[in-house]
Amino acid sequence: MAGKGLFGRVREAMFPSRKAPVQPTTQAGQVRERKYGGNTKAMAAAYGVAPRTVLRWIDGTRHPTKQQHVDQLQREAVDVQTTERGRERKAKQLAQRGTVSGIGARVGRAVSFEIRGSDAVRARDIHLNLSGEQAAALALAEDEGEVRQIVGQALADYFNGGAGYGGFTADDFDFDPNDFDLN
Is 175 strand, coil or helix? Predict the structure, then answer.
């Protein structure tokens, strides 16, 4: 899932029936229609390309070649698969679950997880049971930064024993997004 990133993987895990299309032509068409209201010029301006380039992406005669365009198109293709209303409905359902949402996450500690300023935790994967509030926040997250903050807070809660005893905050944690799974 190279290029999809943490945000895309989390969004697809939260909404499994709403996977983004794989083909760049389908991605470009859906992004233009759903995010830019069918406006080719608006999409072209957002990508910094000519409107004709966007039309070529959609008709399949060309594909995005710059990595920034590929990444942006994949992010936006994932984003447009769910509506704001659908995300809010899912978040409300998850929040009502209380302390046990039924959503779990695995953060790989062996090669990718670091607590800033501490080496007290031995190398192992960390398995988190997200609260309803944390799972709801993931459903509503708008970008990778928000996802990282939510996961960081879940890690802080895990190491603080859920009660804040350890004094960890979300900012104390850094993890490799490629070694993160939501289940």
Answer: strand
* SS3 of residue 98 by DSSP: coil
Tokens at 116, concatenated? 């800033």
Residue 108 and residue 106: Cα distance in Å, rounded? 6
User: What are the tens digits of pLDDT across the range 10-47?
Assistant: 877 777 666 667 787 888 999 999 899 999 999 999 99
Give the DSSP H or E segment for 95. helix 84-95
Are 46 and 38 within 8 A, CB to CB? Answer: no
DSSP 10-22: HHHHHSTT-PPPS
Q: Which residues, at least 6 apart from 17, have a Cβ–Cβ distance to it below 8 Å? A: none
Tell me the C-alpha distance between 66 and 50, whole Å. 14
Half-sphere exposure in the Cβ direction for 86 (13 Å, CA): 11
Retrieve residue 144's tokens: 């990778």
Q: What is the DSSP letter of 162?
A: T
Residues contacting 66, CB < 8 A, separation 6+: none
* Each residue's pLDDT tens digit, 85-108: 888 888 898 888 888 778 888 888
